[in-house]
Amino acid sequence: MSLLERTHDGETKDPPSSSSSYEFTHAAAKSAVAQICETVGYNHFKDPPLESLTGFAIQYILQLGKIATSFANLNGRSHCNVFDIVLALEDLSGNDNNAEERGCSALRSVKLREIIDFVKVSDDGEEESLFLQTLPRFPVSDKRKKMMVPSFVEVGESPPGKHIPLWLPAFPDPHTYKETPMWIERGLDPRGDKIEQARQRRKAERALLSLQRKLVCRISSGDGDRVWGDMDVGTVKEVIREAESEVPEDEKRDGVSVVEAFAPALEAARDVVFGEDHAEWKQKKQKKKKPVALSKLRTEKKFLGEPLDLTLQMKGEDRSMSLREEDRDDKRRRAEFILRQCMENPVDLNQL
Amino acid sequence: MNHGQQSGEAKHEDDAALTEFLASLMDYTPTIPDDLVEHYLAKSGFQCPDVRLIRLVAVATQKFVADVASDALQHCRARPAPVVKDKKQQKDKRLVLTMEDLSKALREVNNSSSLSSCF
Asked: Where do the TM regions start and end (chain B) (predicted)?
């Protein structure tokens, strides 16, 4: 089997479920050893000898590291240096011959000289056979876990006590275990809010009442039998325009609902939002073709003139003669109701 | 005095040669990748931030494996070739790493080193 095939086999045989890094590193070491053997002259391998040679190579590295570390520790160091490695090499080679001849210099070591020669030969000779695949940096640190609890240094806090080192995970925020004062919201001004609300309500009521008055005047003056059903589009529009002019600009926002209420069409007024008056208003709407919204309109409702035209025109065309008489009765009843309401609310009138 | 000076000079030369060798290690990339060697060294407690030392260990391991493999190859070549029917096949001998050759080569290594105590 050629080297590349061996490499592929070595990697695909690794069980994916294994969490340890043993299989991964073993496979990487196996392919590296196979590459070295290829440079020596081999072009085919059998699996068992390759496995055992890989094991030997891994053990060699482990033993080198272990012996070098012990030499460093013997000298009172935790980090190894080149001399520790040279001593470890000598130890592993088992040559006691030059134990006495070993001088102060590491270069006197036979093993090291052999390695230097080896490097020179490899460098001067054919191209260096680099490891065919790129290995990721392993072991891969689980950054999720790390990010969950950062250390004092990472957070930028200083630990509360001198005995606590900076590299330990930071303490949780005090609000997680202590009752800290709530965020103080901006100061409420209930009086100011109420005054503002009342002012807006008064404005709306003023406009409504003036409209009511005008409508009532028209109803009661001269045209006794004239009811809403006979009022043509132009008249209603005129009245509403007058009322609109009294209303300040900034209160015309929600005019759609009121316009629809004024419109003779019942369907157009479906989406009006009247709050608690909605149910009552709906009842009235069902009885009459033209809604009488003035009776119990909430003061927040505004007026708009433009959309009214379209709806009124459309609905006016659709009305048939048979329905008109019924409408007239309804309108009459509604007009009387409005009048009664106007009389009954002396407070609102006084505000004008 | 002279002897001391000479040994001192020799020491300086040796140190210079060692430094030069370590520098040359950065140019030569060993076949065994640095990450792999570092992983196994970390397993045994070897702590060193210097990459050159990692490379030194990698090169030492590479040399060890190359020595064993070359010994096994010699054993493979020394073995008499099997009976060949065609003359053409005689020259192209398949060089396969077998357990036989490897065990012979490792036996020599074990006899000559203290590595046998590790296995």
From this structure: none
